[in-house]
Amino acid sequence: MADHTSGSNEKAKAVVEAFPKKLNRQALLSFASCVHCGMCNDSCHYYLATGDPKMTPAYKADQVRKLFKYHVDWLGRLAPAWVGGKTFTDDAQLEELKDVVFGTCTMCRRCTISCPFGVDHALMMRMTRGMLSAQGVAPEGVKVVSNDQWQTGNQMGVSQEDYLETLAWLQDELRNEVGDPKAEIPIDKAGVNIVFVVNPREIKYAPMSLLAAAKIFYAAGEDWTMPSVGWDNTNFGLFSGDDKLGAHMGNLAYDQAIKLGVKKMVVSECGHGFRATKWEAPNWAGRDLPFPIESFLETMVEYVNTGRIMLDPSANRKPVTYHDPCNLGRSAGITEEPRFLLKRACMDYREMTPNRQENYCCTGGGGAMSMSEYSSRRLQVAKVKADQIKATGAACVATACHNCVDGLTDLIKHYKINIPVKNVCEYVADALVLRRAAHVTEEMPAELRGRSVLVIDDDPDVVTYLTTLLQDHGLKTFTARNAAEGIKVARRERPDMITLDISMPGRSGIEVFTWLRSEPEMTGIPVCIVTGAIDFRQLMYHRNVPPPDGYIEKPVKADLLLMTVRRILEIKLHKASPVGVS
Amino acid sequence: MPTLELNGHSYQVDEDGFLEDPSIWNEEVAKDFATTEGVSELTEEHWKMINYLRNYYLQFGIAPMIRKLCKETGFPLNKVYELFPSGPAKGACKLAGLPKPTGCV
Description:
By secondary structure, chain A is an alpha/beta fold. Chain B has helices at residues 27-34, 44-60, 66-73, 77-83, 87-95, and strands at residues 3-6, 9-12.
């Protein structure tokens, strides 16, 4: 491997000695069972973008596997050359190994799902990173961040004073935003339902997601708190392979949660932070926790399902796509929650392909964003991801990981795609209907009274419910029970707006919608879709006509319907802006 | 070490395009780097932020918290992103000649 020598071999010796002690069952399986079948090649974005055989997962793993063959494998111990066994004799070899395990793998585990034997390359990479880190052979960025986590308890070296001052400032921002001087971001409140742990990026540079979370907690009337210490959900132990650091970061968060006596811990949208805090660190720390841990995505879904928050998707009108973070999609099984939320918080959700557990890495995983020395390679192999994003046709990206936000933002800039990336909770917060605002809509303004709404729905109960509600608030209504009748009434009455069901016997609402959008004398009439099948909306966005003006899910909530109708009519009356253009 | 050619000047930068030697910074650097961070013209408001970042870095050796940046410059949070589309950590710090912030950013 090494074509030059360093003249020293102490570190190499230490790595060789540490290797057998690191082997657990999963590692043994991964080292022993690869047959070099090549199934994993096309799963790796490093290989896909470069076509370089040295970038295939099996080749990269072989750079460590040779140690296994030499020191552990029974045949290799007798005749190492026969099975490709080799050991390290010079420290310079470790530098080369460092470039492989830190610089050509983001530990995204996409190759693992394509392996017929379940060889876990990320596990081997992490184990090797751990052996190298223990000898001080690691990228400078990883060392700095690990050191900050040891010294200050968070990866960006934020002081306690700065942390608390930032939260106080965000509390002021929250109060301004929701218009309630009593809205708060509590600190160390004991006995609450939720303790919320965050990524230091949210504290130091990009607090929009934390502000969004606070707004969502406020709207849901949650009893929650931020911890004064142990607030960093990230864990560089996962990336450096240092189990002790992994345990330390877990313990900081767990101890404070226990001290506060909270009912559960909620982890903000950070992929590796969630995986480390929920699945890995309890093992590294060797402890059972007296409280459950969940992702903020799960918390938000519960709020929607139980009616604690209400969302108006017309706040996010641009087409949005979702990037599955590796540590959430592949390693923690969280794939449906973000889609559930985005489909309710945004008008036009577009799937990225491949997706869920087969999605490509943001290319910044495994701590890659902190390793500047590999940035140009990272951006080179990001072409795979860039093409995938471009193909969605989306105008903005949502993801549930801060590292992915930065990784994607970087490659989007590099490949000049020019669209923003935000966390899921930011889209949700923008779509929040705050109760106070909803109550205002109960009083329909005089100028809107007497305006007409055509309700098209095949369900007589829904028709009665909607028309009663609208009439009670001073609006005039027309009704139609199927597509053909809907078209007839629309043509005859020219209503000020239409609410439209999608699934109806005979011609569907989608056909009515397409007709409304293409008939010159109908294009001025705004349309609000009212449907029980939220996934059907995709069918409408593939039709090359302006999207609907509102989108409401059944069962219809009165507040949301009135607010949406009022907003649509107000826009039509005052702005006279072209329908459907955001 | 990569070299970045901007407006006829050449700069030694790290792989992320941050100035390798923060001490060679001057106002020309900020003007040249502005083009790579989506800032078409450096206004007085841009300079206010750049100068604050610069002075903070010279005093403490690190980038300031966004909280401090907003407090000391008087800019609201969204203004920071309006001025520097690529954000405070990657955009503004780069123009002010700070090294790349540490951590997963």
